Amino acid sequence: MKKLIAAVALALLSQPALAEEAAPEQARWSLAIHGGAGTLDPNAMTPEKRAAYEADLQRALDAGSKILSEGGDAMDAIKAAIIIMEDSPLFNAGKGAVFTWDGTNELDASIMDGRDRSAGAIAGVKTVRNPILLADTVRTQSEHVMLMGAGAEAFAVEKGFAVTPPEYFATEARREALERMKAEKLSSLDVDHKFGTVGAVALDMKGNLAAGTSTGGMTGKRWGRIGDAPVIGAGTYADNSACAVSATGWGEYFLRVGVAHEICARLRFLQATNWLSFDSPGEANAPDAEEIAATVQEAADAVMAEVADLGGDGGVILVTPEGHAIFSFNTTGMYRGRATSAGLNEVAIFGGEERASDTPDH
Ligand code: ASP
User: d(Cα 342, Cα 223) in Å, to the nearest integer?
Assistant: First the structure.
């Protein structure tokens, strides 16, 4: 009956979207990462390029998994995973960030701790090698949630961050994208075809959730444009009672939908009305882990469908208090990976590549 009511409730809330899900049984820890979603063309992906992306995704996944499997904190795990992707020139975050119209690299990041919903964010920063660490320092060492531009950089110096020369972030591929955009009068979507923002979400063995997102924004951005990635509730959200979410995509639409918070709010709503429970799997009539995963997947898909309805695209990763690691995206691909204590460990790029059903535990 509960299941039926949940299905009816979700039918009201949801619309179809391209997505995938996995249902780890009673996972003790869980990690999902992304390196951006977008119009990824399998034919344009050489084996070498693919191997390079997969290797960096796997390194990020392994760094976070190691911390979680050894009993470490979700916050530490997501930072470890994100730093690796910020340092990789392949992703649009830290080194390899896209160029602004003026030829600079301006970085945005945010982080949230599901324990107490403390959050930190920075926007438009040009001299901090790992923006996610500065966002976390805003969270832990200031009274604020969000700092921008020169002020954020002054705060970084005060807190002992090294000043990274702006040239460090520049890569030829991203410069060429800006030049092509200007020469051919293209939009940032035309030159990018994909979003390379990075993010991670985790559940640790203590039951704590965390989420973080880091980006260079969109190619050719002007006038101090800021997308969803550094905005708590749009690109990033974590609440121990509901879920942890990190988004990537056309930021303006994610801002308008309030994607990350909206997904968590729907899960809270489903729990408040007893249609979904993360606390009582195993009890009579309680939904099992797979049913919960399907419900959570539908909630995420419904929010992504709203983004699509407005004309936006992209994707999200999320983990639940039970350890489900879920992806939802309405693009042809999303650089992504997930690992759980139930033995799931995989990276994927195009839609439908998950090998979850092959793993012994599921
Ligand atoms: N969401 C980011 C932004 O709009 C872009 C991305 O996901 O790559 O700034």
Answer: 46
* 261 Cα to the center of ligand 1, angstroms: 17
- Here the tokens at position 298 are 């539908």
Taking the C-alpha atoms of residue 289 and residue 179, their distance in angstroms, rounded to an integer, is 49
Residue 98 · residue 180 · CB < 8 Å: no
75, 113 contact by CB (below 8 A): yes
Q: Please, what is the angle between helix 259-272 and helix 289-310, to 10°?
A: 140
107: which strand partners? 125
Q: How many residues are there in the chain?
A: 362
18-35, pLDDT tens digit by residue? 445 554 444 489 999 999
Burial 122-145 (b: 16+ CB within 10 A, else e): bbbbbbbbbbbbbbbbbbeeeeeb
Catalytic residue flag (residue 197): yes
Instruction: Show the domains of the chain with their CATH numbers.
Output: 28-92+170-350 (3.60.20.30)
Report helix angle 74-87 to 47-69, nearest 10: 160
Contact at 8 Å (CB) between 270 and 11? no
**Residues 17, 342, 87: CA angle, nearest 5 degrees:** 70
Distance, in Å, from the CA atom of 219 to the CA atom of 257, rounded to the nearest integer, reads 22
For residue 183, the model assigns a pLDDT of 84
Q: Which residue among 105, 197, 252, 304 is best mutated to probe the pocket of ligand 1, counting the most ligand atoms within 8 A of its Cβ? A: 197
Q: Which of 331, 334, 338, 349 has the alpha carbon at shortest distance from 49?
A: 349
Distance of alpha carbon 98 from alpha carbon 215, whole angstroms: 9
CA of 198 from ligand 1 middle (Å) equals 9
Total-model pTM: 0.89
Residue with tokens 């979207």: 17
> What integer pLDDT is reported at residue 323 of this predicted model?
93
Which of the residues in the chain have pLDDT under 50? 1, 4, 8, 11-19, 23-27, 356-362
Which of 86, 91, 236, 248 for mutating ligand 1's site (highest number of atoms within 8 Å of CB)? 248
